[in-house]
Amino acid sequence: MAKIRCSWCGNDPLYVTYHDEEWGVPVYDDDKLFEFLILETFQAGLSWITVLRKRENFRKAFDNFDYKKIANYTDKKFEDLLQDEGIIRNKLKIKATITNAQAFMKVQEEFGSFSDYIWGFTNGKPIKNSLNSLKDAQATTELSDKISKDLKKRGFKFVGSTVVYAHMQATGMVNDHIVDCFRYNEV
Questions:
Q1: Which of the chain's ends, N or C, has fewer CB atoms near its CB within 10 Å?
Q2: Which CATH number is 135's domain given?
Q3: Catalytic residue numbers?
Q4: In Å, how far are 11, 48, 50, 141 from 15, measured between CA atoms?
Q5: pLDDT score recorded for residue 134
């Protein structure tokens, strides 16, 4: 019998693997949280599959998502990224990645880790929603509004409520697998 999955992943093998292995799994590791934050900011206005297909190119272009290196990127590195056809070459999003790396480290200094900061909004535990279908899913919530506002106050860019909620879903802060999906109870 075929596994029931959330319908958004369709039949694309890359999407299915991402759904089955990553999406909604709680992430407490700062490096991984930063990677998802960057990927989500680049996704703004685009489809997630577009970013997912370029993920390895992003990893290569952005020094394996090493925020300590990214925070110190030079104008030359910025210009090189603008020429990199393997990534989404959006000037504002590339600049935001550098800014966000700097803001990310400031949050780490203040809270001990970015994980402690971001998971503090949910008391360290995932929020488990009970969605019967994809149409029940929300793009934003009061909590994503609150986190977005706080991130912006801390200097982060491209972190509107929709981006923040997508980050929350990707990193398991919220479980938005539909209740019939085989992953719903696994994560």
A1: N
A2: 1.10.340.30
A3: 18, 40, 48
A4: 7, 9, 10, 24
A5: 87
